[in-house]
Every structure is written in structure tokens, then in C-alpha cells.
Write a structure and sequence with these properties.
Length: about 350
Amino acid sequence: IRQMRAQGHDQPVVILSAYNDFENVRLGFKLGAIDYIVKTDMDGDKVRAVLDAALKDSRRQQIRLESARVEACAQRLQSLLAGDTPTSPADCEALGLHGACQVLLLASLSDYPETLRTVSAQNHGMFTKGVEDLFRQQLAEMGHAAYLQLDAGRYCVLLTFEHLNITEHRPLIDALIHRLQIALRTYFGVRLSVGMSTAAAFFRYIPEQHAEAQERLRLAQCAQAAEQPAPLQSRYAQPVALALAFMQDNYAEEISLKMISEYVGLSEAYFSSLFAKETKASFVDTLNGIRVQQAQKLLAGSPAKVYEIAAKVGFMSTEHFCRVFKKYVGVSPNAYKHG
């Protein structure tokens, strides 16, 4: 445990031992172990309960660390926009941002004010948080990014890369913008306009990139206004749209019908009925479908074990994950991974 901590690893530790020695127990807890199981007590149910608790604790810690990193990145981006150049590359590298190549995006939700006026006061905060969670989740998939909400419906996004090769990065950026546009239109009924700067190699050029992105955003908004499209509407009632966005963003966490009902401000019975009516599927089937889709991506592109992927997409039991996966996909996770 000492060696792990010395190397910067902070994973939760459970000690399994054949020795019921008080000094070992005391030292283990002092070094950060979350439990100490003696061999004579090592039955399957107890070990499973301890490991489940450790997994939940680890996830909570990861969420806290990621939230702190996102907030620190937003503050750093605000400073960069004001012309504050990092004193060293390590200043931003510590936040997971690369200085070799960066692209700045300015994103504006065209129908945001109108849509907010149609949202009840009770759901107003949940709507804005749902949009913010969507940005966070999509940017997390990109990695090495920061975002900052400038004002209502306007965001600044900094994408950073290890190599100055915009030809290589442009398809990734275009795919990100497309995913954001589709998700915002589907779940929230708003349109997204984006202005993108050219690539630059040093953080000190961010103010210039910001000005360039502003002009390109203005042109994109003019083009969008000239098209005069019919007003976009979400496919679903507002509570269902909020619930779906929440499930897409938090599928790896423990999610229950009670939690989502409270999130959207409805009773469990009414929300369950409304959800099934709008989506033509039950809450549980929809959540499992989202988790299985994410699992398919990991199985196809990750060396992780099946039990690790099960945990990453929100299944507490590997056996349950395998049953659900086969129900949706038709084959077991192992067969899908190696097929």
C-alpha cells in the first residue's frame, strides 16, 4: 500500500489476510485501506458487499476529482481568454490540456431564450443543468478539453491536442459538433451554432483565436437565420427529455426510477407512465439499452475485461450485465468482443 501511494495511486484498498492481528489491522487502516477481511470471515457475500462498497466509493471519488478538474479548467480558460499566458507548459498540462495545438470553439444555442420561456419555473434549473451536463459528457469523451459558460446559452470550448495537425483533428472536431447538435435538438429542442478558430500552437494566441471564433460564429448565425427553418421541438415532453439526457450523461452511476422522478419533479407513478407513453419503452429497458450501447463501444475498442466494462457502464453484477447484454445484442459480451 505504501508503494502504491508513493507512486500516486489512490485506488481503494481492501486487505484480505489469514492473520487476525490488531497491529496489521491498525496499520492497514492508517495507510488508507477501507476494510480488512480475515480469511475465516471470507465468505462470498461479505467479500462481494465490501467490494461493491469499494467500487461505489471509488466512483464517488472519481466524480469529485473530475468535477474539481472541470472547474479548474474553466477558471484557467477564463484567464487565458483574458490574455493570461501560462508561465510554463506544466501549468496547463497538470489540468490535462496540451499546449502543442489548440482550437477554440464558441457555441451558441439559438433557441435558448425562447425554449426557457416554455419551461416551467420548477424545471428551469434542471433544464440548464441538463444542457451543461451534456456539454461535460461529450467533452469528456474527447479528452484534453475545457469549457466555460460565458452567459445564458453561450459556451466557449477549448480543445487541445498533442500534435499540430489540424487535418488529423478536424474530423474529430466535426464529429463532436455534430453529436452536440443532434443531442441538443433531440433532447432539448434547441439549435446549436458554432464558430471555430484556426489551430494555434501556443496558449498565448487564445485571445486572437477567440476573436476569430466570434466572427465565424456571427457568420454561422447569419446563415442559420437566413434559412428560416421551422421551430425545432423536442421529440419528448420536457420531463422525459431531461430524464433521457440525465441517463445518457450518468449511465455509469446508480440510477433509479425514484431518483429520476425526483430529478424531473414528478411522482414515480406519473413519471413512469409518461416515460413509457413517450418513448414506447419502460424506464429500466431504456436505461439498460443506453448502458449496453456504451458497453458495445468499450468491448470493440478497449482491452478491458468484461467485468471491468460491466462496472464502467453501471452494472453492479457481471452476471446480470451478461444476461442483459445477450438479451439486447443476441450474443454474450465475450462473443461480441472476440467475434
